[in-house]
Specification:
The N and C termini lie far apart (about 80 Å). The chain has a 6-stranded mixed sheet with strand order 1-2-6-3-5-4, with helices on both faces. A 6-stranded mixed sheet has the order 9-10-8-11-7-12, sandwiched between helices. The chain has 18 helices and 12 strands. The chain is of the alpha+beta class. The chain has 2 domains: about 200 residues, Cytochrome Bc1 Complex, Chain A, domain 1 (2-Layer Sandwich); about 200 residues, Cytochrome Bc1 Complex, Chain A, domain 1 (2-Layer Sandwich).
Length: about 475
Amino acid sequence: MTRTTIACGRAALATALLAAGLAQAAEFRLPEYDTVTLQNGLTVYLMERHDVPLISVRAVVKTGAVNDGQQAGLSNLTGDALLLGTQAHDKAAIDQAFDYRGARLANGGGAEATNVQANFAKADSAALLPLFAEIVQQPSFNDGELAKLRERKVAGLKQAKESPRTVVQTYYRVMLFGDSRYGIPASGTVDSVSALKQADVQRYYQQYYRPDNTAIIVVGDFQKAEMRRQIESLFGAWQAKGAAPARLDNGKVQADKARVWLVNKPDATETTFLIGGAGIARNDPDYVQLNVVNTVLGGRFTSWLNDELRVNSGLTYGASSQFITLSQSGTFAISSFTAQPKTAAALALAHKTYQRLWDQGIDKATLESAKAYVKGQFPPRYETGEQLAGLLGEMYANDVGREQIDNFTQSVDSLTPERAKVIINKHFPRANLQTVLIGKAEAIREVARQYGEVSELEITADGFKPAAN
C-alpha cells in the first residue's frame, strides 16, 4: 500500500467522521420534559435522564441587578447569602452535608436572574433535596456570616480593578445603558456594597424570592411522578406576600453619537478595549443565525478578528467579538488588548476588519465552514444534566421557547450568504460605535479622540461612571 493510498484513506475516514458528527448534530433536539405550575405559582421543570445516577436541581429566581435600585450589589449579596445557613442548619452543617457526599452546591446572580444549584448522586436525593429546599425558602442571613461575606465582596471589588480585563465589560455595560436598570453593575461598588445591611438583604429576599417569581428545575435519574410529589411536598407550602414584581423596562443602549470612555490606569503597559453597541435579546428570532455570522467575525480562533489582530499582525494575543444577550436587549462588542505603543494600530485594524462585513460580506465557503463549526459545537454544550438544567433555567429567565433549540440545525442550515447580509445590516451596529479603553490615558488620549467624544475616568475611583461635573 502506498503512502498516497494511506493518505487518501485517512482523508476519507476524516470526511466520514465529520459527516457522522454533523449528522449527530442534525439529530439534536431538546429532551422531553414536563412543565408544571403549582397552586402557589411556582414553575417546575422535570426532565428524566437515566444514563447516569445523578440529579441536578436548580432554583431560578427572576431577580438581579436590575432590581437593585439605588443599592447596587444588593441582589448579588442576597443570592450569595442564601448559602450562609438556614433557620435549621448553619453554614457549617450545610457545607458538611454536601461535601461529605461529594455533592456540589453553588449559586450565581446576574442582571436579571439568580440561580441556586445542586448536583448530587441519586442515592443522596432524600438527604440533600430537602436541604436544598430549606436553602431557597428559609435562609437565616446570619449577621456575622453576612458581614464576612460583605467584606470579601468589597475586597474583591478593589482587587478587580487591578485587572482591566476583569472590569472592562462592567464599564462597557454602564456606558451603554447609562442610568437605566441594565446599567446597574451586578457586583455593585465599594461604597454601595459596604453600606448594605442585614435588613436590606431580608427585605430584598421577601420582595423577590417568592414562588410566583421562581422556577425549580430538576434533571436526572428519577421518575417524574414521584419527583413531582417530592417538589410539591417541599415547596408547595411556600407562599408569596403582596403583589408580584411588575415587569419593567430595563433600558436601551444609548448610542446617538460615537463615544469613548477612557479609563485611566497610570501603571498600565497594555490597552484593553471594547468596541460596539446594541445587540439583541436572548429570545430574538435571529439569535441562532446571528451567532453563526459572528463566528466568522470573531467567534472562533480562525475568525477574521483573531486572524488579523493576532496571527497576521501580531498586535495582540487574541481578539474576538460577542453578543451578550439579556431578556429585553443586549450588547455587541469587539474585544482585545494590546501593548500600549500598538494601541493606534490595533484599534485601526479592528475597525478595518469589522468593516469587512459590509465591504465584502461573507462568501459561501466561509459561511459553510462557520455553519459546520457551530453545529459541531452545539450538542456538547448540553450533554450533562447540569448543562440541561442550566439551559432550562436560561429559557425560563429569558422567555425562550424550546422551538429555538429544536430548530437550531434547521436555522443554521437555512442561512445563506444573502440572508447573512440581511442579518449583518439588521443587527451589527455600524454607526456611532461605542468604545471603552482602559490604559495609560496620557499615552493614548490622542488615539481615543479619533473614535468619538471622550470622557475620562480614573480606574481607582469607586464605581464605573465618569465623575459628576
